[in-house]
């Protein structure tokens, strides 16, 4: 019996260790690897480091003033954040940034809609009239259009061999970032952050006359972002890319410049505990039963 308890303790420890390891990993890109020489950080939108970390949630929406705004699907991030840090990076033709996650971003079929990672820019849905934090999203109507710009996205396992989403999507397109949840009943913004690791349903479309509130509700708690599925690379390269760790974004010829705010690894269904349960329910449990019989 003592050996049985010891084995169970080991398995429990393995599950806790796996959980702790995942908890320490950031869902966002954490390291800047390389960037083009034009990104000198000398102006508001050419700081390559702005793409690291989580998407922007609040920003100063006027210059020389303390006025601030939440990032929402009808009002994107620009200027600087509440600490005065630059929030987005513009990629003109010839510009590029290579960043890295602190872990392997997996091609996981358990991810919502099969989407493996998200790229956040500063696209936004076009609406009828000006918008601010005080604007009632329940009555603010959209035209059905979206302001977006082109950014080419590539991924790599080693930072040398790249696989490019040459058929799209663009890194600065649908779905616009929506940082906070909207309280439709009371017609106010909440202080509850949206989930930046949850993709929007790729079947979601916006039509003229839709309210901003209805689209926020259709996001189902997601913070937005353009979704990418690693399986889409199979038709282009004839391979199945199981994971990547490096991501590259490049300006596209013909566009005035797309913007990048952040990159996120999509969160799948919880893995550590089910994995431990699988171990307990498979061969190792059989080993425990064998030891019991031998002790008996």
Blueprint of the fold:
Layout: H1 2-24, E1 31-35, E2 58-60, E3 68-70, E4 89-91, E5 96-106, E6 117-120, E7 124-127, E8 142-147, E9 151-156, E10 163-164, E11 180-183, E12 188-193, H2 212-218, E13 226-228, H3 234-237, E14 243-251, E15 258-260, E16 262-265, H4 272-281, H5 283-295
Antiparallel strand pairs: 1-5, 2-3, 4-15, 5-14, 6-13, 6-16, 7-8, 9-10, 9-14, 11-12
Helix pairs in contact: 1-4
State the main characteristics.
296 residues; alpha+beta; 2 domains; 5-stranded antiparallel β-sheet; 3-stranded antiparallel β-sheet; 5 helices; 26% strand; globular; disordered C terminus
Written account of the structure:
The structure is a single chain. This protein has 296 residues and is of the alpha+beta class. The chain folds into two domains: 1-25 and 272-296, no CATH class; 28-266, no CATH class. It has five helices and 16 strands. The chain has helices spanning 2-24, 212-218, 234-237, 272-281, 283-295, and strands at residues 31-35, 58-60, 68-70, 89-91, 96-106, 117-120, 124-127, 142-147, 151-156, 163-164, 180-183, 188-193, 226-228, 243-251, 258-260, 262-265. The strands form six sheets. It has a five-stranded antiparallel beta sheet with strand order 1-5-14-9-10, with no helix packed on it. The protein has a three-stranded antiparallel beta sheet with strand order 13-6-16, with no helix packed on it. The chain has a two-stranded antiparallel sheet with strand order 2-3. Helix 1 runs antiparallel to helix 4. The protein is globular, with a radius of gyration of 22 Å. Mean pLDDT is 86; it is low at 1-5, 14-21 and 274-296.
